[in-house]
Amino acid sequence: MSNVRLLTPRRFGDERGWFSETYNARSLAAAGLDMAFVQDNRAFSRAVGTLRGLHYQVPPYGQAKLLSCVRGRIYDVAVDVRKGSPTFGKWVGAELTAENGKQLFVPVGFAHGYVTLEPDTEVFYKVTGYYAPDHEGGVRFDDPEIGIDWPLPPSGALLSPKDRILPSLREIDSPFAYDGTPLTPLEA
């Protein structure tokens, strides 16, 4: 298993704009992220404050994710939910924008979620496992034990019905084992 990583693909620009390789298997493998992505996902959120998460899929259907914001801005978060981890319940977050081009890699064993910071925001992400709706899990975005400092608008988070009823961290029986790598701060 790997750790949560903030990646910044290189951009090559001139007077026309820029070009960037957002996915290159060899480059990621050289960075220690050697895995096969099997599905691409795209999400559109109309309103500021749309919060999706905190989600995961249980083994053997776990998903590592590589996320990019291709329009607008999001605050993207990963929470360590690996049983026995010294950083269990700790989180890291980063702002991903179409402008900054940053990507967040979230390995299996972490709950993931994001909130939109601009209207009409689009997120694109690659996953290493196929969507398995019968094997979904999650944790409440506002669990005080985790204490995520979400940059929410005054109106609060806009949640799906499913996300409104997610359990707290204490209520889940984590299906993920600690692999010896604690969660570390993000570095670009």
Which secondary structure elements does this structure contain, and how are they paired or packed?
Layout: E1 5-7, E2 11-14, E3 17-20, H1 25-30, E4 39-45, E5 51-57, E6 65-71, E7 73-80, E8 82-83, E9 91-97, E10 103-106, E11 110-116, E12 121-127, E13 136-138, H2 161-164, E14 176-177
Parallel strand pairs: 8-14
Antiparallel strand pairs: 1-10, 2-3, 4-12, 5-11, 5-13, 6-10, 6-12, 7-9, 7-11
Question: What is the count of distinct domains?
Answer: 1
- Order of the strands making up the biggest sheet: 1-10-6-12-4
How do the helices and strands follow one another from N- to C-terminus?
EEEHEEEEEEEEEEHE
- Please report the number of helical segments: 2
Structural class: mainly beta
Assess the beta-strand content as a share of residues.
35-45%
Mind telling me the CATH class? Mainly Beta
> Judging by the overall fold, what is the CATH architecture?
Sandwich
Radius of gyration: 16 Å
